[in-house]
Design brief:
Blueprint lengths: L1 H37 L2 E6 L6 H8 L8 E7 L4 H7 L5 E5 L8 H7 L10 E5 L16 E7 L6 H4 L1 H6 L2 E5 L11 H11 L4 E4 L8 H18 L2
Parallel strand pairs: 1-4, 1-5, 2-3, 2-4, 5-6, 6-7
The protein binds guanosine-5'-diphosphate and magnesium ion.
Magnesium ion binds next to helix 2.
Length: 231
Amino acid sequence: MCETQGEGHQHRHLEVHRHAMEANDQVAARLRRGFAARGILVLNLISAPGSGKTALLERTLEQLRPLRVSVLVGDVETERDAERLRRCGVPVAQIVTAGTCHLEAGMVESHLAEVDQRELDVLIVENVGNLVCPSGFDLGEDLKVVLVSTTEGEDKPLKYPAIFHRAELALVTKADLAPHLDFDREELLRNIQAVHPGMEVLEVSAKTGLGLDLWLDWIRAKVEEKQSLHV
Ligand SMILES: Nc1nc2c(ncn2[C@@H]2O[C@H](COP(=O)(O)OP(=O)(O)O)[C@@H](O)[C@H]2O)c(=O)[nH]1
Ligand SMILES: [Mg+2]
């Protein structure tokens, strides 16, 4: 008897979850059509809290000129990251999720008007710091980028495979700290490839600027690719 009630409850829970995901996917599809119609490249940056998403964007945004870039940044609380990024002179909207551990397509849609999308080449979404939940929610992006810092441990791709599997590019951040840590670079690279064979990987430091040129070139190439489809 108890087991039957338990199963029923679990079934209802799964149904609610399925409806929520379907609703998210519908909004994401609408967003993707809108971005495609305007030729805007959309990147969804995902990592654990503190991996260096905002620091990397602080180094990235100005250097992407003359490309026109905007940022949507998600956090559970505060406008702190938006305030940091606005200093780079690009339009930034903060999405405060008030407890939700990931961004959903509806949140992106309702904040889009705050960043001028008529005149945009690239929209960068900094997701809520979390390696698990954000990977399951489509935001209408072209590509997901996963960041993993040298301080997080080489095993993270194995422990959180979904995001490494779904992302196009892995950025190994805080490369400047590697000499000061027991960091096994080869093992991290091996673990990334084990989860996502052939995955593109760039090693960067927002502090020293190491690897930033390759990251900027990667973005520029993706923008060109996107705009060549937009005729
Ligand atoms: N040494 C070093 N520290 C970094 C680097 N990038 C970020 N940090 C530091 O890591 C902390 C978290 O960075 P932040 O950009 O806020 O991470 P986010 O939570 O992923 O947006 C801050 O104290 C940054 O100064 C880096 O390349 N090298
Ligand atoms: Mg941040």
